[in-house]
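Researcher: Please translate sequence to structure tokens.
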Amino acid sequence: MTEEKGDVLAPATSMSSNKGRAMKSFKFNLNIRKRLILGFFGLCVILAVSTGITFVTALDIAEDTDRIVNVRVPTAASSAKLVNDVNATLAALRGWMLTGNPAFKDERAADWLDIDDIVNKMAGFAATWTNPDNVAIFNETRVLLEEFRIAQQQVEDIANSVDEQPASRILIQDAAPRAKVLMQEITTMIDEEMTLEATPARKALLGIMADVRGSTAISLANIRAYLLSGNDNFRDAFEGSWAKNEKRFADLSASSRLFTQTQSAAFERYSAARAEFALLPPQMFEIRGSDQWNMANYLLVTEAAPRAGKILENLAGPKNERGIREGGMVANQAALLTDDAKATNAEIVQLEVILIAIMAIGLAVAAAIAYVTSRAIVNPITAMTTAMGVLAKGDFSIDVPAIGRTDEIGEMAKSVQAASSASSWRPPKRPSALKKRRARAASINWPRISIPRRVPCWAR
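Model: Translation complete:
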């Protein structure tokens, strides 16, 4: 079993050894040029990575900033402004209804121009909204705004007009003219009676005429009071006065034999006008007692206000228990604005961390490249320079470094080694013939001979 295990491990050990030799061979097969290129390439890769990360992060930040500046902030501001303008149109409409001042109509028209401008801007913003619910709410709100505009215009048109209060219109257009005929004709009859002889029968007839005129006047006054106030007491008072009028009118009809020709003609006109007038109070009372007694208020409550409430609910949210609106598209846009601002700030912080990390990595890699380059190039060259200095002094016993390298320094080392070997070789020394003669001459004992010194002739 042991032998089999050894056989199994042997190939793995051999592969590991081959891999180590391959890595070592790859390491030393790189010449200086390749090492410099490799180091520069590493720095370029770090620079490219850092630039790419910075560029992508900067694009994200720019996109978020653009969305904040060109979408979130304008949308939030426009939504809030739209809420204010809707409330402003309602306030102006109520001012016109209460006072009849045309300035409120102009103010409402200006508010609607502002609403149209805001809606057009928000329609452009909606194309870039990230929340589909806001898009749906905005589209619904646009439809409601058009309906709200129409309802407000109906209220404005009918307010302070004769059609604003249908019961009052009946009173003015129908009841009052007939009541005027009643009062005129009964007064004509009374004036005619005043010119006649005062007999007991005619005195009684005059009293009947006076009661008819008085009850007619009181009934008309109660009608006006009820239409103005809606107080049922005035309606009850009318019922009492009109019942008296009917009784005395019957008495007057029964005494028609006493009428003069003038009184008979006046009574006929009175009777015809009274028959028409008697149909009108029930109509006026029914209208005044209903929700439609004031059509401006009725349209405001049933048409304009519900749409305004739905619009405000879409924009500002429903009312809470304190009557304050919460939520809606305005709050959602404000929340999205806050989220985008936080996201942008987080991306900025992330970019700062990335830049610091890349700077640290770049410095570490640069230091490593400098260290490796120093060991691989500078140190061998320094050692080579030292060796060449020693060789220059004639000491050929020094070992030339980096002989085993395969790069340019190794080539240089081999060249220096070859030069050192050539400089240290000397041919064997052989004595020359001149030296031999000099040596032989020096070994002979020659006798001393004196040679007289000759004096030049010019010195004698």
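Researcher: Any highlights?
Model: Residues 1-17, 19-28 have pLDDT under 50 and may be disordered.
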